[in-house]
Amino acid sequence: MTTLPLPPVDAVLARPRREALDALRALGWRTAARPPALDAARRRRLNLDLSDPDLLLERGGEVEAVARVETDGEGRAVLLEVVGGEPADPARTAAALLGRDPGAPRTGGDAAAREWIWGPEAGTPTAAGSEPVRIWICAERAQGDRLWLVASLVRRPGDDD
């Protein structure tokens, strides 16, 4: 299983977009100035058929993973999505993002698509700034159990008021 270089969530979430992207760049990710030239199967595996990445991670001349950051109206990062072409250990990935033992996740799914969730609903409180964070990781058998993770601020209706 692969281990991707990932910064702690508080270096990405609740930060200005530029700081969020710089936290990943500092670990070897590079700006995706244009979509990479990949075959259709690899594009699907990295979710490039759904959105364009902000950053790419290359190893040995191959795109190993892509990352995308979404921001709120103030330009602060509220979501980090990372898709890697190879399987990754969910607990080790969550530990890298949290900078500590992540504790027990809430799990779901079946053999076709398993999910692990850390955050308020799993009883594993984590925050970026003063806002709660959720880490969702999925492994889909159809995609070779690739790494697909979403780390996001947990906002409720009215949080922007």
Protein described:
The chain has 161 residues and is α+β, with helices and mostly antiparallel strands. It has one domain (9-153). The chain has 3 helices and 9 strands; from the N terminus they run H-E-H-E-E-E-H-E-E-E-E-E. The chain is globular.
Q: What shape does the CA trace take? A: globular
| Strand/helix succession | HEHEEEHEEEEE
Low-confidence stretches are: none
Q: Give the biggest sheet.
A: 9 strands, antiparallel
Q: Let me know the number of strands.
A: 9
Mean pLDDT: 86
Helix % is 10-25%
Give the end-to-end Cα distance, rounded to a whole number of Å: 43 Å
* Residues in β-strands, percent: 25-35%
- What does the radius of gyration come to? 15 Å
How many structural domains?
1
Structural descriptors:
single chain; 161 residues; 3 helices; 9-stranded antiparallel sheet; alpha+beta
List the helices and strands and how they pair.
Elements: H1 17-25, E1 30-31, H2 40-45, E2 55-59, E3 62-71, E4 77-84, H3 90-98, E5 106-110, E6 113-118, E7 127-128, E8 131-140, E9 147-153
Task: Provide a short characterization of the protein structure.
The chain is of the alpha+beta class and 161 residues long. The protein contains three helices and nine strands; from the N terminus they run H-E-H-E-E-E-H-E-E-E-E-E. Strand 7 and strand 8 form a beta hairpin.
